[in-house]
Automatic annotation (TrEMBL), chain A:
PANTHER family: ARABINOSE-BINDING PROTEIN-RELATED (PTHR43649), OSMOPROTECTIVE COMPOUNDS-BINDING PROTEIN GGTB (PTHR43649:SF29). PROSITE patterns: PROKAR_LIPOPROTEIN (PS51257). The keyword Flavoprotein does not apply. Transmembrane segments: none annotated. Keywords: Transport. It comes from the Bacteria. Belongs to the bacterial solute-binding protein 1 family. It comes from Kribbella sp. HUAS MG21. This is ABC transporter substrate-binding protein. Pfam families: SBP_bac_1.
UniProtKB/TrEMBL annotation, chain B:
It comes from the Bacteria. The chain crosses the membrane at residues 33-58, 85-105, 117-138, 158-180, 220-240, 276-294, 327-350, 389-410, 422-440, 452-474, 558-577. GO terms for cellular component: plasma membrane. GO terms for biological process: transmembrane transport. It is a multi-pass membrane protein. The keyword Phosphoprotein does not apply. It is found in: Cell membrane. Gene3D superfamilies: MetI-like. Belongs to the binding-protein-dependent transport system permease family. The keyword 4Fe-4S does not apply. Keywords: Cell membrane, Membrane, Transmembrane, Transmembrane helix, Transport. It comes from Kribbella sp. HUAS MG21. This is ABC transporter permease subunit. Pfam families: BPD_transp_1.
Amino acid sequence: MPSSRRAFLGTAATLLLAGCSSDVLGLRRSVRVAVSWSGQELRAFHDVLAGLGTLSYPVEVVPLGDDISTAFGARSARRPDILMLPQPGLVPRHLQDLDPMPDDIAPLGRARLWKDLLVHDGTTYGVPFKTAHKSAVWYRPSVFRQVGVQPPTHWAEWLTLNRTLSQAGFTPLSLAAGDGWVLTDFLENVLLGIAPPVYTALAAATSPRPSQQPQFGAALRLLGQLWSAPGLLAGGVKTSLVQQFPDALVEVFGHRKAAMVLASDFAEPVVRSFAADPHDIGLFTFPRMSAGAAAPVVVGGDVMVLTRPTSDNARDLVRRLAAPNAADPWISAGGFLVDGRTSGYSPELTRLAEQLTEPGEQLQFDLSDRLGRLGDINGLWRVLADFLIAVGGRGADAVPDAVDAAMDDLRKLEEG
Amino acid sequence: MGLQTNGLSLEVVGREVTGRPVQGKPRRPAGPYLLGLPALLLSCLLLVPIGVTVARAFTTRGGFGFGNFAVIGDPAALHAVGNSLLWVLVAFGTVVVGFFLALLSNRLPAVSAVLQPALVIPFAVSVLASGATFRMMFDATPERGTITALWTRLFGSSPVWLGPGLFWLVLMSAFGWTWLGYVMSLFRAGLDAIPDDVTRTLTAEGVKGWKRLRALEIPLLRPITGVVTLTLVIAAVRVFDLVLIVVPGSMQQSADVLGLNWWRATTSSGDTGRTAALGVVLFAIVAAVGLIGVRGLRRRRWAMPVTVVRQDPSLGRPKPGRVVRRLGWFIGFAVAVVWIFPALVLVATALHSPREAGLRGWWSPSGLGFSSFAAAANVGLFRALLSTLFIAAAATAVLLVIAVPTAYLVAWGGLPTRLGRIVMGVFVVLAVTPVQMYAAPLRDAIDSAGLAGSRVALALVHAAAGLPFAVLLLRSAFASAPPALVSEALQGPVRQSAVLATVQRTYRPALVAVAVLEFALVWNDFIVGFLISGPGTTPLSLVLWGEARQFSTSSGPVAAAATVASVVPVVLMLSFWRTVVRGLTTGSRP
C-alpha cells in the first residue's frame, strides 16, 4: 500500500507540475468573454474562437446563461472584458459601465434597428455579433401533408389549422414556457402584428406603461385565443412550464409529440441534430394578424460590448470577432445569422435572412429587451407564465378574466 | 521506599498522573503562541471581510442603524428566508432517517458490508453532480426521465416532477442522497462503540425496543447527534448550487433560498448595504442553529466530543441467527442497489452520444460510445480539471501546515483558559459562516491586489474557509492524547517534540480525515469559486453552468463531465472512508 500511495502521489505531483503553466495558475490576464450561450451554441462559439488563429493572449469563455446581466453587477476586475449581450436593450442603461467600440468597427453598430440601442451621443457602445429572427415557427411537413393543410398565412388561419390538427388527432404545438423569452416572443409578434405604433412607442418610452395601452390587452386576448384551445399543448401547461426551448424542439422533431414549435433561427442545430427524420423539417414565419397587414418580424441578437475599463487585448478580440468571416464556422454549423448578410445559410435560414433585409417588412427590435425591469424574468416573463396557467387548455371563456388579471399584474409591476 | 511500624511493612508506590496535572498558573513561555500566528494571519482572510460586511450592513445614509435590514420586508427575500428555514427541517429529517438506517445496520450487521460503499459514493460526489443526476432522473419527458418513465408505465401518466411544489421532492432526494451516507456512518460508528455488556444488562432488565432506545442509545449518541445535526443544518442553510442546477428557470423564483437571493441581489443592484444585510441575516440563522447545535459540544470545551473506542474483537456480540443474517444481507443489498442507482444513471447517460442522451433515457441501447466525453472535453474540461487539482492540493497542503500547530496550541499549548475558549468560540463561528458573509469584500480585496483570477489566491481562501473545522477536529484528537504524555510535554519544549512525534502514530485518523475532507470539499466546490472568481473555476461548474440553459439536450456532456469530475473524490473517499469516520468521531485512543 505505501508504495502504491507513493506512486499515486508521484503521479499527482508530476501532473501538477505539468499543469502548472501560468495559464492554469490563472496568473496570465486572459480576455474573458461572457456569453449566454450553452450546449451546441457554446461549442460553436468555441469553434469560432479557434478559427481566429493564434492569439497573443488567452481567451476565457464564461457562460452566464440567463443571468448574463449579472456581469454588470460585479465591480471587480474579474468582470468579463467582453459581453455578448443577448439583451441589447441593456446597453443604454449601462453606458457608465461600457467603453466605446474601436473606431474602425464602430459603423457596424449604426445599422438600422441597432442604432437606437447601440449609439449614444454619436458614440458606438456595441456592435452586433449575431442576429436573431424571432418570428419563426418550425414544423413537421409530414403532419401537415397527412392532414392536408398548408402553413398559415394569417392569424385566423393558424387558429383553424390548430383545430384541424387536434381533430385529426395531432397535438398542434409544443411550447417552451420554461424559457420566459419564448412567451414574450409570442406576445411581441402578436402586438407588432396588430399595432406597430404602440409597439414602437412602448419600446422607445423611458418608463413604459403597457398596462395603459388597450392594444396591449387586445394582443393578450388574441394570444389567449390561441393558447386556450384545449389539447393545443404537448404535455399540457404543466410540462410546458418546465420545458426549455431545446426540450420543446425535441418534443416536436425527436419524439414527434407535436406538429409545431415557435423558435428562433438559432434553434436550427437542435432541430437538425435531434430530428428523427432529417427530411421532415419545415419552417414558416409568423403569420400576419389580418389579411392586409404586414407580417411581424421581431428581431433579437447578441451584441458585443466592452466593459470599462477595457484593454487592448479585448479591443483586438472584438475587432477579430467583428470581421466578416469570423463567424463562418458557426454559420456552417447552422443557426447563425449575420446582420445584413443573406447568403451561405441553409434554405430555411436563407428565407429568414432575406425577410430581415427586405424593405417594407414590419421589422422591430425585441420589445421585452427594451422594457427594462418590466421585461425580464420577474416582469413580463412571470406575468405571461401566469397568464398561460390561467388560460392554457381552458377554452375561450377563461380568456377575458385572465387578460384582466395580467393587466393588473402589469400595473402593479409598473408602480412597484 | 518503605515504612515500617508495628511490624507492618508499608510499601509506598508512585501513581501515574492521570488528570491534567496541577491547578494554578503554569509558567507560560511565549514560544507556543507563535504556533498560532499563521492561523491568525490566514483567518484574517475571513475575519476582516466579515467585519467589513457587518459594518456595511449597519451603515445607512444617515449613519449607523438598522435601515438596511428593511430588505427582509421585501416579499421575495421573506419567501427566501422561509425556504431556507424549510431546508433546516429537511436537514433534521435527514438526521432522523439516517439514525434509523444506522440502527438497522447495527441490528442486522450484514447490512453494512454492502451498504457502506454504496452510501459513501454520493457523499463524495459534488452537489452539482448529484443535482444534475436527479434532474435527469426526474425529467418531465417519459422518454428521458427514469422516474417519469417508471411512473407512466405503472400509472398511465406522471406528475411533472420538476413543476410547482414537486420540485421540492427532487431537491430533497438529491440532498438526502448526498448526506445520508455521512449521517449513517457516524451514527453507526457511535452505536458500534456502545459496550455490549451495557446493552445486555439493559436487555436482561427488560428494557427493550423504544425504551432501550430512549434510555441507552439516544443519550449516549447525543454528542454524535450534535455533530451530525450541525453539519447537516449548515449544509441545508447553505444550499445554493443545488437549486441552480435542479430547478428549471420558471420555478427558480419559488425555490429561492437566502443564499441565492443574496447572490441575485449583489448582481442586480449596486446597493452593498442591503446585500450585506441579507448576508448578515443568513449568517444569523446559521449561527443561531450552530450555537444550539454546539451546546452539546460545549461541555467538552468546544471539542468534537465523540469518543469511539474500538472494541476488543474477542468480546464481539453473539452471532445473529441465520434468518436475521439472511434478512440483513437482503435488506442491505436492496438498499445498496437503490442507493447506487443514481450513480449508475449518471455513468450510463454519459456513455450515450449527446443526441441519444438528449432524446432517450440511459436504458436505451442505441448511441453507446464516448462522444459525450469528447463533447465535454471540447469546452475545456481538461484544463479545468488541472486547475482544480492544483487548487485542491494547494489548499489542503496549506491547511495541514497551518492547522496542525494551531490545534496543538489550542489543545495543549497552555493558552489561558479564557483565551482558549474565545479562540475556540471564534473557530466555531467561523466554521458555520456562510460564504456570502465574506465573498464580496474578499473579492474586491483580491482584485485590488491585482490577484484577480489567481488560483493561488483562491486556494488560500479555501484553506482559510477550511481552517476552523480542521482545527476543531484536530484539537479533539490532540485533546484525547494520553495525559501522561501531555504532562511531560508541558514540562518543557524538549518534551513537546515528543508529543508532536506521537501525532504521526496516534492522531493519523484525524489528520487523514482533515486532508481527505478538505481535498474533496475544494475539489467539489462550486460556491466559493463561483462567488470569488466567477463561474468556470471548477470543471463541473464550467461545463454545467454552460450547459444548464439547455439542460436535457445537454444531458450527455453534462453526465460525462460529472462522471469525470467525480472519479477523484470517489476513489479518495472510498479508500479512506474508514479512517475518515474514525477521524470524525475522533478521540481514537491508541
